[in-house]
Amino acid sequence: MWPFTESCSRKSFFANSFLEYDYIIIGGGTAGCAVASRLSEDETCTVLLIEKGPAQDSWASKVPLISSAIDEDPRAGIIHRYTEPADSSDGIAHRLVNSESLGGNSKINGMLYTRGVPEIYENWARIGHANWSWSHVEPYFRRIEEVQGLPKATHAGRSGPIHIVRHPPMFEAYDHAQKAAAKLGLPLGEDANDPLSVAHGYFPLDYTIDAQGYRHSAHRAYLPGRLVSRRSDRLTIRTGVIATRLALDVKEHRANGVYIQSHKCQQAAEDESELLIKARREVILCGGAIGSPQLLQLSGVGPELLLKKHDIQVKRHLRGVGAGLSDHHAIPICIEIPPRGTLYYLEKNPIFLLWHLLLYLTMGLGWMKSPPTNAAIFLNTSNLDLDTMETHPQYDTDHPCPNRSGKGTEPDVEIMLYPASGVQERCENKSLFTLYTCLLRPESSGSIQIKSLDPRADPSLRLGMLSSPKDIEVARKALRFSLKLAESFIQSYPHPARLFVAPNAETGRDWKDLSDDELDKFVQDNIKLVYHLSSSCHMANEEDGGVVDDELRVHGFENLRIADASIFPTIPATHTMAPTYMVAERCADFIKATWYEGSSV
């Protein structure tokens, strides 16, 4: 059904393929699909995209609501990894869910498309990356987008590959959450992606769903079957293949290609020989915040002591490879409300579930076409009155865009409003509305380190959650704000409502009476990963621990680049899908500017 090959046989795998390409892209996830699509626009070059996971979309992986809840489907390439137990204050190994497939995490994420406020990118410019300022990245967001509706959104792209929509909230609870936010001084923002809108407030969210009501993953947006068929003479996509190491020429400062093996098949176990695929021009790593540093370390690029520990020849000592791993962290506050007001009603009432499946199948309507959340609150905790938890933003009024750029505008907390349980593993059969309180600018970070020479083995993952005292301080403020927000919500909600998961849920004490120690204990016991891993090959000077330069070249190699969330100089205070697409688009332009006279970025 697709012009893709998924075979375990090395012979059949390359029966109709070449062993040399102009560009080799390693990793067919969110970024890899975009880079492959853009580079293969050139009819004179050849592009190979390799991905170790599958290509197929199951029906469930296309349905917005269902696909956001799938975490066990092998057809979506879903795998589970775990952080090191010692990495957590409670000694728990936290689970990471990823999709290793064509399209990657864009097949299973919450589909939320947020650019982030301009100040995120202005901060990147201030720390040394002048050509990553808002004025440099904004055109790429426009290029990505095909925004449906929103006729007043003059900032939005209208002809890009990614379909973006907004639906009205599914549940009454959103209206009351909005009223509760307004009581605390937060304005109603019309569009979280508008650079001229307020930076902090209650916002409806945009998400990547196409006109047919299907999830619009990177796979479907950038590499639809018809496009791949038209480009079959120059674009080769091979799934079921793993990159074992890069072929690096240290003297010439070049990546000559990549060694590969079949992934997850009997032949791989019986025949451990590698096949070298050569690159005439460039090799681009798109393995994500885990895969890209892992492959570099296996190839002899990384911290010298780690490489020598595994008897790997050191090709380039780069201490930043695998360092600086970051994620957003979340603390759920859950309010119990009647089942008709949450997604739990689908579980409780099979007839209602069947009805919504029929609505979706026949007319593209109902709950199935929506993402798991419709709105969120963004705020900066430095603007909170600690006695009342009301917000009083302090903007830099000298800045040309004081609402979105300048000191005090970058949010450090997001509260996702989630009409389901945020602690599903502990609270089954409960109708919960969750205030998913996320730390957007954590100073804590961790690392990724290989544990063996086996490219199939998971590396050691450490996130260092709450290792920074600043993060603990922000978490306390955010938690108090969420508790006050929950209090206001419960007061206005016209149906029975009570705190169910909260530090004062059992005692009923006022949020003001909770001590720092009680809040810290609740945070440590309930903190969760948000699956926004980034910055493990971050952009910076080599002497500062950086891995790539401002054009995404790995230090020491003129034709080896990284294009994924691992290169973020700092984790962006927003959902990471849109910035990842932006990085991929920019990388493709950097490459074109290198190889085509007259091109510009």
Molecular structure report:
It is built from 17 helices and 24 strands. It has 601 residues and is an alpha/beta fold. It has a domain at 116-151 and 158-216 and 327-341 and 371-529: Glucose Oxidase, domain 3, CATH 3.30.560.10. The strands form six sheets. Strands 1, 2, 3, 9, 10, 11, 12 and 24 form an eight-stranded mixed β-sheet that branches. Strands 8, 16, 17, 18, 19, 22 and 23 form a seven-stranded antiparallel β-sheet that branches. A three-stranded antiparallel β-sheet has the order 15-20-21. Helix 12 (304-309) links the parallel strand 13 (301-302) and strand 14 (316-317).
List key phrases describing it.
601 residues, alpha/beta, Glucose Oxidase, domain 3, eight-stranded mixed β-sheet, seven-stranded antiparallel β-sheet, 17 helices, 24 strands, globular, disordered N terminus
CATH class of the domain at 116-151 and 158-216 and 327-341 and 371-529, anyone? Alpha Beta
How many helices? The count is: 17
Q: What's the architecture of the domain at 116-151 and 158-216 and 327-341 and 371-529, going by CATH?
A: 2-Layer Sandwich
Helix proportion of residues, in percent?
A: 25-40%
The CATH superfamily of the domain at 116-151 and 158-216 and 327-341 and 371-529 is known as Glucose Oxidase, domain 3
CATH topology of the domain at 116-151 and 158-216 and 327-341 and 371-529: Glucose Oxidase, domain 3
Report strand %. Answer: 15-25%
How many E-type strands?
A: 24
Rg estimate, integer Å? 24 Å
The helix-and-strand class reads: alpha/beta
CA-CA gap between termini:
37 Å
